[in-house]
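job 3f2a | input accepted
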Amino acid sequence: MLKQSATLAILFTDISGSTSLYESLGDEKAHKLVSTCISALSGVVGDHQGTVIKTIGDGVMSTFVSAEKAIHAAIAMQKALDSLYLVFQEKHVSVNIRIGIHFGPVIKQNYDVFGDAVNVAARMVSLAKPRQILTTQGTIDELPTGFDISIKRVARNTIKGKGGEFSLFEIIWEEKDQTVMLSNDPTIPVIYTRLHLQMGEKELFVDSSRPSIVLGRQAHNDLVVSEVTASRVHARIEYRRGKFILIDQSTNGTCVAMDGKKSSFIHNDEVVLGARGYISLGCEVDATSPQAIHFAYEYKGDKQK
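job 3f2a | predicted structure (305 res):
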């Protein structure tokens, strides 16, 4: 087939934490769940006049004739996966996706697309966090006047093989987190203000004034865990918009046990911490272990330590 030039929006999706799905559900159930997700994502592409180019393991690559259609499709994909979670709720599994978009020139050949724009879109999805939609200045420039979806510049980053830094933009698709409850009773604590972490006699806090800490085996970490299964730099905890996020970046993964839920294992992924529970690095321990890192949200009005 002859090569054809075109200018398109390239959209990549990637299912976050698919490896842990196979570990927790088993091959057959996880494959069925991933396949259902891929089918739902592909359906959204068609609903927004896009073209599915290929499915890549646990993701979809698609194209759209305009940046506007691609962004609307990306938001619809995120919402579609939220709906799917209700279907699979009995398995206690949530499925989140990362999305990256870039608008630019491509070469179309044999029902595939090639070119620098494809590489940039792939880089966007690799930088995105679960439930995040990232895009580029090239996409933003193509949006029509009066485009009414919120967009914010979040960072500058490099793209392999390209000189200089590029601005990254996040498409805001979720409603603003409601972390404040209005009340006339000043005795009711209404705002999460910080996360209290404790391991034995060691304790520290994460909040807006100290929005990130690092856990691991090396002495320079904020919380040092002298466990052979812990990596030198094992994980981070970040404060984001009233939530506390655990990000694993280790060899052996991180176990998280939240009150009222079964313990879960994450590896090179992230999870929102619940109100209280405990974390263990590299292996599963019980709550009484000296290596258990206990955490709890503290509210405005709680007694400060």
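job 3f2a | The two ends are 70 Å apart (CA to CA).
job 3f2a | closed
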